[in-house]
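Sequence in, structure out.
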Amino acid sequence: MSSASHDALVLRPFEGLPNERDLVAMRQLIPAATMAAKTTAEYGSVDVELATILPMAWPAVRRTDGSVTVGIQAGFPGGDLSRGLGQAIKQALALEPGNPVTAVTLDDDAPRLQEILDLDGDFEISVEDTFEFWLDPRAERTAEIESSIQQANDSIMPTRPVEGLPHAYWVDAGPKEHLRWVLDAAEETVIDAVTRLHARRESGIGEGTKYVGSFRAEGLSVPVWDLPKGFGAEGVEAEAEAFRTRFEQALTTEEPLTALERRARGGIVARQVTLR
């Protein structure tokens, strides 16, 4: 495989993996989360833990039990995040247990996640309140390790999945709360759906909430809502069924936008942000 292909930008690197939308959330939205996977038989059927981030922003680590943990939020070379992550796993597999991968170097045959992982697994996400998953169960818990984890924990913005709204995440960002929802739909379709609801004054989730814009992350659209302080994940969950119903109806509507909706769309498009 040529270096040119390594550098080619892949806009949707997790496409074809189970639970693509939560993988995008782990890359872009969630401070601390894990997802269980396993390599294919070709790569030894080794347990793999996909994690948001690792200590020192390591790309991956080979645990003392031989399993591999890879940090999705680390920096990777090339234009294909999936290939960078696959190469990080491959490099970790070549290490003696108990050692980290500190830098990723793409081989000519660097595998993508879609090639190195067994895709029959559940790939179920687990959102964590702390970075305790950093700890190797067989390693000694020293004062330095405890202090490092506590410092990392103090930086976490509370983030929760929303029951009734799959792949949506509530976050307490300090002065504001937000809902961010990863959608597997074309960006223009998402904007049209928000437009239809906005024109009917139904684009909010509940009282005091407001749609504020959206961005694109790893090829998927992520609309964002501001929530009143104290609204909480529970407040979103109370409105989730009704909101999801009207949003999905708007998402599947194919009728042309009305004049009122076209005017509303202009303001919405102005708020779009593309994330690379």
